[in-house]
Write a structure and sequence with these properties.
The protein is α/β, with parallel strands linked by helices and 231 residues long. The chain is built from 8 helices and 10 strands. 35% of the residues lie in helices and 18% in strands. The structure holds 2-amino-2-deoxy-6-O-phosphono-alpha-D-glucopyranose.
């Protein structure tokens, strides 16, 4: 099980977003040049909207933050609506007024860029329905590096919900488990009844490559989940 104070249950997605925004804003106040690994996906979107609202109101300043890309499909152009780089820019980078970014295009460049940054202060993560983090598909060892891979049927199915009639690309690149687990803090956001079993497995089951998110218990982890996800 995760440590005391690590798991915060919120009544609904709106309050999850408030709590997550509080957490991220507090980190940015403590260290204005925070480096943040940024998940896309549905779960963090209300949080990002709330952060943008606070930035616009002058309550918090993200202009010195560096936003680092977590994952991407292979073979999609910037103009492609499925580009996760585009999704990160539209939902996080631009609305928060962030000017510094690290794009994930190839494992070697990414490693160098992270080293120049001095590592990650915070990883904002969603939970894949199969326990993946980014696109670290099961099985992923804790030292799995940044790499390209073929998506599992489970991820193709869950990602299909994002793109309407467009196919989900089958190839992807992901920040490695090694990168995520080295972050100085991890924030896992989990919403909805469909995540209930995998969240229990991640927090209460064995640490196993079959549930990559289970290795997050080795980090300075905060989980913010809604009641639907925790049950
Ligand atoms: C996707 C992405 C992850 C995301 C996760 C959960 O496949 N690769 O970066 O965090 O699955 O997504 P959602 O928040 O939409 O459930």
């Amino acid at each position: 099980m995760v440590g005391e104070g690590t798991l915060r249950i919120q009544p609904d997605p709106a309050q999850l977003a408030q709590a997550a925004a509080d957490f991220i804003a507090a980190q940015a106040r403590a260290k204005p040049n925070l480096s943040i690994l940024v998940a896309t996906g549905n779960t963090p979107m209300p949080t990002y909207i709330e952060l943008a609202r606070r930035a616009e109101a002058g309550a918090v300043d993200f202009t010195r933050v560096t936003a680092v890309q977590l994952d991407e499909y292979l073979g999609v152009s910037d103009a492609d609506p499925r580009s996760l780089w585009g999704w990160m820019r539209r939902s996080f980078v631009e609305p928060l007024g962030i000017t510094r970014t690290v794009r994930l295009e190839n494992p070697e460049q990414f490693k160098v860029a992270l080293a120049e940054l001095g590592g990650l202060d915070l990883a904002i993560l969603g939970l894949g329905p199969n326990g993946h983090l980014g696109f670290n598909e099961p099985p992923s060892q804790p030292d799995a590096p940044t790499r390209t891979l073929t998506l599992t049927p489970a991820s193709l199915a869950s990602n299909a919900a994002y793109w309407g009639k467009l196919d989900v690309p089958t190839g992807a690149i992901t920040a490695g488990m090694d990168v995520i687990l080295a972050a100085r803090a991890c924030l896992l956001l989990v919403s909805g009844t469909h995540k209930r079993d995998i969240l229990r497995a991640a927090l209460e089951g064995p640490e196993t490559p079959a549930v990559p998110a289970s290795f997050l218990r080795r980090t300075a982890l905060t989980v913010i989940a809604d009641e639907a996800a925790w049950g």
